[in-house]
Amino acid sequence: MVSYSDSWMEVERHLGKRWALKGNIEEMHAQFDELVSFLAPQCPSPSTAVSTTEGMVNGTKYRVYSPKTSETHPLPVGIYLHGGGFVLGDLEIEDGFCRMVAEHLPTIIVSVDYKLAPQHTCATQLQDAVKVFEWAYQNTDSYGGDKSKAYAIGNSAGGCLALALTRYMLLHPLPTMRGTLKGTVAIVPPTLHPDNVPDKYEQQYTAMREFRDNNPIIDQSSVRSFYEYAQVQPNDDTILTALAINVHSNFPPTYIATCECDPLRDDGRIMAQILRSAGVPVRENHYKGLPHIFWYFPIVLEGQDFYQNTLAGIRWVIDQM
Fold first, then answer.
1. Range 223-243 burial, b when 16+ CB lie within 10 A, else e
2. Of 16, 50, 193, 298, which residue has the fewest beta carbons closer than 10 angstroms?
3. Cα distance between residue 293 and residue 302, in whole Å
4. Residues 182-213: b if buried by 16+ CB within 10 A, e if exposed
């Protein structure tokens, strides 16, 4: 039985409860708004060392983050997909993170404001990611990007979409676009459905049962609700990339982060194992005693380790290109 870290328990003391996304879509939106209100006063002011521009590609909004002081040009390009269980989130919730990554690597970040479930399915969200990446790849001269150093990055549902985008680009209908993503950064990603775990991984896939209920941030019921709202089918290898066995060996270098007290823990760890077994360079970080997206809470001391490790992981991916 795992135990939560002291720093996480301090979060729960501040909250006065164990906070989690639960219930129907309206309830989850209310819970999410409550969390944003709780965190906003604790978050540092956004970096002014990064400039932003926004645009639209066929109905999908994006934001480009460019470090102001970098002497390196052109810069690597990260296509960022935000978290939120496919049903929550927008450009704003990851603004600080995108600025931090753009400034400290340095790199260009193109953040995708993909459409949300239940009004739109996971297939639409993937296509939004594809549209923005294709625009970003074809227009690097307009923002100082290096198209030979493009990578996908995301956390939670966004990590799932980053992996799915990588898979899609390996199989792109246009041969000239295949393999144009040179790396992937997947932070606490879902990669399997609990109703369709391959037999060879069943014994490893225990987190979904361990954290069935009464878990911080998300539990098994949360994950099932997200999948239901986004219409993620258990056998859909276009979204659940641990099942995409025909392309695993072609994946680019991949960085994966997982949390011990997370029902998605084994999704990430199994994906790393699959890719490594297929000969793909993989780097991992694992956070003991901590739940899903713990770094959103500034009072969690391990958050500083997370940011340093994530920057190092992205830098490692870029260095493999």
1. bbbbbebbbbeeebebbbbbb
2. 16
3. 11
4. bbbbbbbbbbbbbeebeeebeeebebbebbee
pTM beyond 0.90, yes or no: yes
User: Which residues does 121 contact at the CB level (< 8 Å), separation at least 6?
Assistant: 230, 231
Distance CA 8, CA 259 (A): 12
Position 173 pLDDT exceeds 80? yes
Determine the straight-line distance between the first and last CA of the chain, rounded to whole angstroms.
40
Q: How confident is the model at residue 267 (pLDDT cuts 50, 70, 90)?
A: very high
Catalytic pick among 66, 111, 156, 222 = 156
**What pLDDT is stored for residue 70 in this prediction?**
75
pLDDT exceeds cutoff 90 at 69: no
Q: Yes or no: say if 153 and 188 are a contact pair by the CB < 8 Å rule.
A: no
Answer yes or no: are the C-beta atoms of 144 and 73 closer than 8 Å.
yes
Query: Using omega within 30 degrees of 0 as the cis cutoff, is the peptide bond preceding 281 cis?
Result: no
Q: Which is nearest to 267 in space by CA: 252, 250, 281, 284? A: 284
Instruction: Give me the percent of the chain exceeding a pLDDT of 90.
Output: 94
Apex CA 148: angle with CA 132 and CA 96, to 5°? 50
Q: Check if 262 is active-site.
A: yes
What would the two tokens of residue 6 be? 């002291």
Catalytic residue, from 95, 262, 266, 267: name it: 262
Q: Which of 82, 120, 248, 292 is catalytic?
A: 292
For residues 79 and 101, the answer to whether their CB atoms sit within 8 Å is no
72: confidence class by pLDDT, cuts 50, 70, 90? confident
122-138 and 157-170 helices, crossing angle to 10° = 60
292 an active-site residue? yes
Catalytic (active site) residue 37: no
**Does 1 score more than 70 pLDDT?**
no
